[in-house]
Amino acid sequence: MSMESRYDKPGLLATYGRDGLMQIILIANTVLMLFPIAIMVMSGFKSNIEIFQDPFSIPDFTNVSNFVAMATETAFMRYLLNSVVVTGASIFLLLTLGLMAAYAIARYEFWGSSFLLLFFMAGLMVPLKLAIIPLFILFRDMGILNTHWALIAVYTAMGLPSTVFIMTGFIRTLPRELEDAARMDGASEFRIMVSVMIPLCRPAMVIAGIYNLVPIWNDFFFPLVFIQNDALKTLPQGMTSFIGEYATDWGVMFAGLTLAAAPITIIYIILSKQFINGMTAGAVK
């Protein structure tokens, strides 16, 4: 055995030890994160008695009565549709406006472009909830209080700073030659935006979309303030109506929570590859 290989062994053992410890930490973190979700899903297949007597037992997964009751005997589907409409419209608007603003800041040289970027970034540090009273008065005077437009406006404004920040940094890493070639071919600025920038910025758009999707979908505060009509409530606000003053069917409640979490989980799984590509794109470039 050579002297080099003999001295390499402690280094290899230390490396393997660090890797093994890191894997143990990651596995433990995964179990810690998934454990409440597993309890929530399993409780959706149990009755109240089973939940309180043996909360950690494996349920009968063929018993879907709680899910049927949630879908047919409550207003869950209406709340779900409201959340889909509000979240979808908000994500569409903030990605569209954010991409256009980021493209202008990153590509066009004009006086005040740096200040404009800082103006958007300042929105990351100012909680929108501080302006809840002026917003309430403004929406009341505009006539959009107690409508979905109030929520869409708030969520779009709330998500624009992070979207512009993510998109600006990503666009600055893209080569300008692609746009110059499109201009030489006679493409308009709008055509360049649609045909060149959107396909190239798709990973960054996925990151910005997922980053804003979860807080918008799970938000309880703004619907509580701006929405009073039960037919317009979103899922987080509507689910509170299933909790009774004297009794609550927790099995049906956990079934509703499982169904409410399913769309976001499915979307993340579908877009996870592009999300990871977008996260690593900057390092590769």
Summarize it:
The protein is mainly alpha-helical. It has helices at residues 3-43, 48-53, 65-72, 76-107, 113-122, 132-142, 148-171, 177-184, 189-200, 202-218, 221-226, 235-239, 250-284. It is 75% helix and 0% strand.
What does this structure look like?
By secondary structure, this protein is mainly alpha-helical. The protein has two domains: 3-64; 74-245, MetI-like (MetI-like fold). It is 75% helix and 0% strand. It is built from 13 helices and no strands. It has helices spanning 3-43, 48-53, 65-72, 76-107, 113-122, 132-142, 148-171, 177-184, 189-200, 202-218, 221-226, 235-239, 250-284. α8 (177-184) packs antiparallel against α9. The longest helix has 41 residues, at 3-43. The radius of gyration is 25 Å and the shape is globular. The chain starts with a helix and ends with a helix. The model has no long low-confidence stretch (mean pLDDT 83).
